[in-house]
Each structure stands twice: as C-alpha cells, then as structure tokens.
Write a structure and sequence with these properties.
10 strands, 19% strand, alpha/beta, Rossmann fold, three-stranded antiparallel beta sheet, seven-stranded parallel beta sheet
C-alpha cells in the first residue's frame, strides 16, 4: 500500500509536494552522499519545479539528475521535458553546479537513442518523481503498451496518444527498482483513477500507475477526498 500525503489546501500543494520530495532527496543524501533523482514532465511537476526555483532549497551540488521520459523533439522545443526543467528549477543556475543527463530523443534512430540513455542510467534510482495522466499512465508508459511487458530493457521507444507521438520512456524495471517513488496527482479525476488502482492493484497493463503503489502519493485536497471517501 502507498503512503498517502495530502496538502492542506490547493494553494499550498506545490510547496507541500516540493517538501515531500526534498525529504526523500535528503534521506538519499544521508545514506550515500548524493541523490540520483529522476524527473517527470507535466504541469503538476512544473509547479513543483517553479517552487524549487523560487525557494532555492535543492542541494544541486549533491544531485545527479535523470529523466523518466522525453518527447522526440529538440531540447529547445516547448514540449521538451529537458527544456521544462531548464526553464524552471534550473533557471539562472550555473550549469557547473549540477549534473544532468539529457535524453537525446531528437535523434533519428530512436532505438540507438534509447540504448544510449540506458547506458547512462544507474542500476538504481534513489528518488523517482512521477506524474500521472487521467488514463493512469506514468512516464510515457501508456495503458496496454508493449513497453509494459519489457523484462530486459530500461529505456525503450514508444508512441503516445497525442502529439508529439514519438517518445522514449523508462520501463517498469526502473520504476520497480527505484528506492523511493513519489507520485504527484491533483484533481477529482486523478483521485478516482488512484482509487481504482488501489482497490484492484494487480493489473498494471490497464493502469500503469499500479507500478508505483509502493511509494508515496502526494495529492491535493480534491484528489485526496476522492481517494479516501
């Protein structure tokens, strides 16, 4: 069962979620001196990244940053997760102060790009930050995608349901091996999806978020009310 944490109000969600993730980061740093943090894209994660930008509480010199997925666009494209992170949590920070591993998803050969990122990934991610779609997808692991059955790969090319369609994503192996997962979810619809996932947790093919149910769920009050009602 997951650990469920909810912010006291809508306005305070970003600060609350940022603090939860920071606690996981500092616990990893206390264990091994650094933290291998895997980042998510999406609007909910963006709110947390904006909070980190304004608060400057992240120990960037102790972080090694990775991505859970990337759209197959250039790194300066508006849909790029890498650009999202640079424009928010890392904006105005000195690149010499942090270590970040970009997915080169703009390559024409996506299989080679996936293999290249596999070679960069650590065996275990210390903190895996995830968002969730209303279809229950995490990273770019969409319901019933063959990538969910991958047993020997950590990064694979996939096709998403909306543009830009082509993406690279981590596989269930990375999610299941992570020392700590933190899933962000807001709103009634996502609360309903999480309740369905928790009530019947076995079938991760139809709801990939079930892969992350051993971690921490960070919810806003709307999602939390649905989940606990």
């Amino acid at each position: 069962m997951p650990t469920v944490l909810a912010s006291a109000d809508e306005k305070g969600f970003a600060a609350f979620a940022a603090e939860v993730v920071e606690n996981a980061i500092y616990a990893a740093i206390e264990r091994r001196g650094t933290c291998r943090l895997m980042l998510s894209g999406g609007i909910t994660a963006e709110r947390v990244y904006d909070r980190w930008r304004s608060s400057a509480t992240l120990p960037l010199d102790r972080l090694h940053l990775f991505f859970g997925d990337e759209r197959c666009v250039p790194p300066d494209h508006p849909e790029s997760n890498y650009r999202l992170v640079l424009d928010t949590m890392l904006k105005d920070r000195n690149p010499a102060d942090y270590e970040i591993e970009r997915i080169e998803a703009e390559r024409s050969d996506l299989e080679r790009a996936a293999r290249a990122y596999e070679a960069l990934l650590p065996e275990v991610v210390d903190v895996l930050l995830l968002g969730m779609g209303i279809d229950g997808h995490i990273a770019s692991l969409f319901p019933n995608d063959p990538a969910l059955m991958s047993s020997d790969r950590t990064v694979v090319p996939v096709s998403g349901p909306k543009p830009p369609y082509n993406r690279l994503t981590i596989t269930p192996l990375v999610v299941q091996n992570a020392r700590q997962t933190v899933l962000l979810a807001t709103g009634k619809k996502k609360g309903s999806v999480l309740r369905e996932a928790i009530d019947s947790p076995a079938d991760f093919l139809s709801l990939p978020v079930r892969l992350a149910l051993d971690g921490i769920l960070v919810l806003d009050p709307k999602a939390a009310r649905i989940l606990t009602s």
